[in-house]
Amino acid sequence: xxxxxxxxxxxxxxxxxxxxxxxxxxxxxxxxxxxxxxxxxxxxxxxxxxxxxxxxxxxxxxxxxxxxxxxxxxxxxxxxxxxxxxxxxxxxxxxxxxxxxxxxxxxxxxxxxxxxxxxxxxxxxxxxxxxxxxxxxxxxxxxxxxxxxxxxxxxxxxxxxxxxxxxxxxxxxxxxxxxxxxxxxxxxxxxxxxxxxxxxxxxxxxxxxxxxxxxxxxxxxxxxxxxxxxxxxxxxxxxxxxxxxxxxxxxxxxxxxxxxxxxxxxxxxxxxxxxxxxxxxxxxxxxxxxxxxxxxxxxxxxxxxxxxxxxxxxxxxxxxxxxxxxxxxx
Length: 330
Prior knowledge:
By secondary structure, the protein is an all-alpha fold. It has helices at 6-12, 24-62, 84-115, 118-131, 136-161, 180-203, 208-216, 221-232, 234-250, 253-258, 277-283, 293-321. α3 (84-115) packs antiparallel against α9. The N and C termini lie far apart (54 Å).
């Protein structure tokens, strides 16, 4: 019996039909994904339209001054309702939380993916993921009774030794309670699991071949991380940070528990007093009984909706320009 050559074996195989049209499964999957994307867009538009229609009475009364007024008195007597102070406070708290949370989240994600022992990695990952499941209300209560007393001394120390920096300038004797700084620290703790989880997932996908090649060429582990893992995970760092910022801007109950609500735009983060749009809506929901109370709250929600949408859009553009894997060089 003769030996069959490779060419004869290939020729003996049945020919496969090449289809130029999509199969029924392909069409169904394409229709399902397209429908899901369009449904998300439609829901987003409907939410914005709902807020806009319900906010129109307040916007008609206050006009453009609604975006430049610091006061909040939605009783219809003149232009006394505006979101300037609460919008400023929302961004202020979010920035403080982001500055504190992102470095810790980045280091935590790198440790979990690059340094943690295999046995401890699963347990630590589970603990980090569970932190994201704790309700905001629990964070707020814990921060009010436990975290805030411990931060009062730190606030006094910052004001005494770093008071020459404008943001840390505050009366040496306080009061330092219920300040944007304390709220920012609390929100930062809430953002840690969210940002860490996103960064960890991206870092875990870093190409093994490039990592091993860098180590084989004599690079230290940190140099391998700096030249391979971090460039590969740029999108994860940006995406996790922006997702965390979006959540920070929307925090309401936890912020309302701690913050001493005032309608000012002070740059001194250690001084008592501040506000945010989410905390305003949670605190002043009783204003819905006023003539323009509910429309004013809807208008504030519309502003928060627009701010969050802008942050997410900017994040998408940044992630697209810093996609994972771009710039990985050994």
